[in-house]
Structures are given as C-alpha cells and as structure tokens.
Predict the structure.
Amino acid sequence: MELFTIVLIWTLPLVSGMADAASRSVIKIASKLHDFTLLSVGLLFALPFYLIWLFFTGMPIVENGFWVAIALHVPLFTGAMILMVEAHKASGLASTMPYMALTPAFLLGVTPFLALFFSELGGSSPTLVGGLGVLVLVAGLYVLNMQTRQQSILSPVRAFWHDRGSRLMFFASIILAFTATFDLVALKNIQNNVPFYLLVDHGLLSIIMALLILAYSAMKWEKTLPFSPRGFWKSLFFFGCFTALAAGPHNLAFTWIPIVPYVIAVKRAGAILFGVLALGLVMGMILNHPKFQDDKKNLRFRIPGTIIAVIGMVIIIIWGKA
C-alpha cells in the first residue's frame, strides 16, 4: 500500500476526532439549551448530509444482523450522548475529554468479548504491539489530566470523585466501547454503506430525543433548561455539521481498518489534539472566550501527556498491522 494511501486512511479517524471535539465545543456554547433539544434538532441538521451521500452510494442489501446491531446501538448511544452532553456542560473540555480516551482501553476487552456472539467481529482484535500502542495512548491521556498542584500520580483518580463532568464522561466512555463495536457489526451487514447506517441510526436517535421532549411536556415533569430551540439555531446547525463530519470518517475508516480499538484510539488522539490545543490554546488563551477559560488552565502542563498520546498513535499506525 502506498504511503499516500496509508496516510489518507489513518487521517479519517483523526479528522473524525477533531470534528467530535468541535461538536463538544458547540455543546459548551449552547449550555443554556436542554440536552434533548440539542440532540434531537442538532442531529436533524446532520441527516441531509447522509441523504446526499446515500444518493451517490445507492441503497445497500440489508441483512438481519444490521437490525440486531441497530437495536443494540441506538439505546446505548442515546444514553452515552446524554451523559456526554451533561459532562461537557458540567466541566471544561480539558477535564472531560481525557476520559473519552479510556474507550480504546475498554475496547481491548469489549471487542474480544462481543466477538463470541458476533461473527462479524472475527479478526478485529489488535496485535500485541497494537494493543501496547493503545495503552500508551491511554497513559498519555492520564498524564494529560494531571495538574501542577497535584503531587501524586494517583491525584487524577482522586479528582475523578470530585468532578461531576469527569464521572459522567467516564461512564459514557464505557458505553461507547460497546457502541463503537456495534458500528462495525452494523456496517458489515450492509456492505459498509456508511450513509445508510448513519441515516437510520441518527434518525432514530433524533426521534427518540423528540419523544422524550414530548413525554416531559405531556407529563409536566420538572426541567431545568428550555426545550425551545429559539435563539440557538446557529449552534444547532454547527452541532449537526460537526456530528456528520465526525460520524462519516469514523465509520468510513472501518472499511480499511476493521479493528475497532485502533480506529477509536486514533479518533481520540484527534479529539485531544483539537480539544486541548485548539480549544484550550486558541479559544481559551488567544481569543479569551469566556466559555473556554477552564480549558486554558494549566495548558502547558498538559502538553507532555498529549505528546505521549501521539506516540501511542504512531505505534498503532506503524506497527499495529491493521
């Protein structure tokens, strides 16, 4: 395989991670909007991108395994999305994003376990060196989450119990280890037709969120934020755009890299590079945006962790044998 092709393939999850982090920044900006509305209306803006893409790829032959994967993926991904939105509203991106990188580590156990039940996952486990690269990347993210005032290497673990956003993101990262694996199962049952999968998956997720809004309104349950999207249309549009840009390359990468921990590890590296450097440095420090002040704190002490994470990514790409 030519070097250019290799670079292009591995760029897919990297770009996906950056777009994913960008969508998280929109969540911070739209923090006064209810989670259900953000997800329901925001995902609606992503659907036209998938429809246009599907026009060029055509409809796939859908096997029964696709609907099994969808039935498992949608409710789990719904829960994970709600947890992620709440986490980003509760804490700064520099505090919450590192916990997202635990997903590749969880995948080292989740993927072989699910392979016992889904034949589509045969051969999707990483090599020993590739698994080491995943762990190096995760270690870099652990270091990245340490701060100057912390003296012990276990301090980030203790800080986890005092930061609500970190706790929510931790549980979201566990769920995402399962949903990422179901992504691959679903795609293998529709000949890797990414736009069809995303149209169905995100369409159902948007509908579920809309139904939750109706249920809350009908039951007159207490809500802390408004459901009305008025005044947030720009944020919702960008959330949909970034979501589509994150989901498209993420799932397209499975066509050439059918090893879930590798794809997610590189995706998380892209999110870290964007979340810590672009948002913390540019939005927080240079532009001094009020919504990103937490992200610029101790920025220079997060750089070593970022470098270690990138080293882990390089190990995966060069020696992972995907």
